[in-house]
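# step 3/5: fold
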Amino acid sequence: MIKGISLYFTRPGEVELRQVELPEPDAGQVLVQSLVSAISPGSEMLVYRGLFPSGLAVDETLSSLQGEFSYPLKYGYSVVGRVTMTGAQVPSSRAGRLVFAFHPHESHFLAAPDELHPLPEQVPVEDAAFLPNTETAVNLVMDGRPVIGEKVLVFGQGIVGLLTTALLAKFPLGRLIVLDPLPLRRRAALELGAHLALDPASPADLAHLQEACPQGADLVYELSGSPAALDQAIQASGFAGRVVVGSWYGEKRTELDLGRQFHRGRTRLVSSQVSSLAPEYSGRWTKGRRLEQAWEMLRQIKPSRLVTQRFEIQQARQAYRLVDQSPEETIQVLFTYPE
């Protein structure tokens, strides 16, 4: 038996590390020893805070995240590790290979080889931990369809917002403006290529936004995780503007003012979620192709520079408290595992 550690969300504001014993791999399995895993400050914080919709499937597309949202719950979806043991039907050459897995936070786990993604050359371990959020950012850009010369706003500069900003910065846009209340994130957005970074709670900054986009924005992303920001996003869009909603709000609710800009402005709301591709892409795009594009973006962006803290998995409670209570100090937090 192989001894390991699994992280469980047990109730709002509480996580627990549990000792587990794993059997040796079956014939068609491999054993992975984790090296790093990334905390998602968006969806994981909803689970940590107990704001998930009860009865909702965790993820119907990933075998490692089956079941419904309820405590106790193993959750997380970004682990990079090394294959340390192979089953009888798996080529022994896979042993020692670095792999990525959409998997909860665990020190060791068993998986079928087709559930793992070998790290490409020139993608370091910590960069690879950004793969899920980079794929989400790729999906957001595809759903928004930016056009040359457009004025684009991004509300929210958490890790998904920052990665989306980094991708949008590669387009020949007219203006790329981000909005986030936290100075650390605004500075990071400017380093990634945003033209302007504003505080959405500052009247002076909102006046600056009006000066920069007097006719409203062509394309607006709502990635803050705050439903109230959606109202701001709608009001900031121009005539026939597109508002792409990439946030998952869980149980959070808000009121929207649809009596002004939205109705007469013919604003289009677009829901974007990475578990599927927009139907109009189905003729030429697959999830595999989108994932390959995400790997390429990792090579170009090198997002490990956005890591602000690293905690050993044994410090999980401290890590989650920091992300929950001090978001102004964090962008991306990683767990590390002893080899």
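# step 4/5: annotate
The first strand starts at residue 2 and ends at 11.
# step 5/5: archive (pending)
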